[in-house]
Amino acid sequence: MNLERFTRAQSGVYANAVAELREGQKRGHWMWFIFPQLLGLGKSTTARHFGLAGLAEAEAYLAHPVLGPRLMDCARTMMRHSERDAQDILGPVDALKLRSCATLFAAVPGADPVFAALLDTFFAEPCPGTRLALFPRSGS
C-alpha cells in the first residue's frame, strides 16, 4: 500500500495542525490527511484521494513509522480537550470526519484504545456509515 500521499500532504502542515489541536481551535484545511476516514464516506475529490480503502490500509497507516505516531499524537491531543465539544474545536463537518476516523481505527485489531476513547468522549456512538462499510453483513 502506498501511503505516500499522506506523508506528502502532511509535510508542510503537520506542525500547524498539531498547534491548532493543542490550542483547541482548528483553522487550517488538513483534516482529510491528519484524521483519515474510510474511502466512500466523503464525496469531494480530496476526500476520495485521502480515503482509506478498508481495515488493511488503516492497519498499514497505523504501522507506518511516521503516520502512525502522528495519528496517535493528534488523537491524544484531541483528548486533552475532553471537557469540550468536538464541534467547537473542529467545526461540525470536521467533527464528523473525526468520528469516522475514530470508528475506522478503533476497528483495527489491536488498535490503541485512544480511538475508542475519542468515540466515548466526543460522540454518542460510532459512525454508522463507517461501521456498515466495514461490517456490511453483521452491522457490528
UniProtKB/TrEMBL annotation:
Give the matching SUPFAM superfamilies. Rv1873-like (SSF140736)
The record's InterPro entries line, in alphabetical order, gives: DUF1810 (IPR014937), Rv1873-like_sf (IPR036287)
Q: What is this protein called?
A: Calpastatin
Say which species the protein is native to: Profundibacterium mesophilum KAUST100406-0324
What is this organism's lineage?
Bacteria, Pseudomonadati, Pseudomonadota, Alphaproteobacteria, Rhodobacterales
